[in-house]
Amino acid sequence: MIQPLLDPGFEPAVHWVRRYREACEAEPASRDVVIALERPDGTVYTVPLRLLPASDAHAARTHRYVERMVKFLLWQKGGSTIAVCGAPDVAAHLGGIYCADGERAFDADLMGTRVFLAGVRVVSRDLEEAPARHEPKVSVGGSTEGCRIGFDLGGSDRKCAAVIDGKVVFSEEVEWDPYFQSDPEYHTSGIRHSLEQAAAHLPRVDAIGGSAAGIYIESEPRVASLFRGVSDADFAARVRPLFRTLRAEWDDVPFVVANDGDVTALAGARSLGDCPVLGIAMGTSMAAGYCDANGHITSWLNELAFVPVDFREDAPADEWSGDLGCGVQYFSQQAVARLMPAAGIVVDDPALSLPDRLKQVQSLMDGGDERARKIYQTLGAYLGYGLAWFAEFYELKHVLLMGRVTSGPGGAIIIAEAEDILRAEFTAVAGAVSISAPDETMKRHGQAIAAASLPSLAG
Known about the structure:
This protein is 39% helix and 20% strand. It has helices at 13-26, 56-76, 88-97, 105-115, 184-199, 232-239, 242-249, 260-272, 333-343, 354-366, 370-390, 409-425, 427-432, 440-451; strands at 31-38, 44-51, 81-85, 121-125, 137-139, 147-153, 157-164, 167-175, 207-212, 215-217, 220-223, 255-259, 277-282, 286-291, 296-298, 398-402, 434-436. It has a 5-stranded mixed beta sheet. Strands 2-1-3-4 form a 4-stranded mixed beta sheet, with helices on one face. Strands 14-13-16-17 form a 4-stranded mixed beta sheet. A hairpin with a 3-residue loop joins strand 6 (147-153) and strand 7 (157-164). Helix 8 packs across helix 14 (440-451), helix 9 crosses helix 10 (354-366) and helix 11 crosses helix 12. The radius of gyration is 22 Å and the shape is globular. 47% of the residues are buried.
């Protein structure tokens, strides 16, 4: 293993899982199990696993393996019922975790109550009772005709573009600070201002498409970190209907808002002209999205900020969920800030924001500072091991990197380091996957431009 320069304790998920699977292969009594994730609308995702025998000697390893796999699958695909088929002991363990006072109470509440409006439950079934897979597909956007507005709402800035028949005629980036604003009017007025700025450069507005961090169902925010400062009551009353309200202000033109990760994948598919594409945006948080080999956006959530990538027992914690070793701490501005002390970079003001800390590192990198280079090399190591892990769950061909963290010369270092690790340790993945980054304009405004293509003028 090639240890990340500034994080020698890093335990790649892909290595830990492969060791467990090797133990299963060496144990004749290992058992077959199916994990099924079910949604209230009838969508079912199924994943076969092989587990060590049910015994005290193997329980701790098996419980950790299944718990981490379920955590990944839950945030990759999404569901409110976790069915464990063929392993009642594992179902009992998960049931004690995904409950109101369990270790995964955050996930159970957020995924069940807020995303699917039904509490998460864990059920045990016989292997023969495993449900059939049922995954609906959604066609990728890509409509370009007419006069359109596209916007992308990030944690430190919002971007907006005016597009006429696929050609950008205006783009703008405005800094804002939405995370801890308690009044939804802050968010509404900011988005409204961006739409008005873009509309001023169009003869008319035929459609509006948006990209935003969070989970959106029919353009309604169900979970969105941008509104984390808003009370539950205001979220239900004013945030969920936010984009319906804005649509009404624009004469009910087609208005679609999608998860920013899915729009990243759409931007990648459009720029590369090929699929499948895993898009990763390394910004204030981590966003991801996926277009499959047929050019379709799947029904999956692809919230990789919450999936485990580091299996060490004392991995850094996600500030929101409290879980350890999840993607946001390795593929975002939070990762840059976390690595600065290890690199020997002093932050004089403890209150300095994440974007400003990133700017400090980027400025040092522009000056050839070796400490900054080590941060990017460490991020690249995370990416290399992360992609080998993601390849367990996705068919990978193109990986497109976006976001402020990848801007400037540091982005090339991240890609080069990731490619070195894949070639050294994961030759099959290295031979199948191309990692690329768009030009600077596309990095900063690509999601807003791609978002403009989301709505169809037919409705």
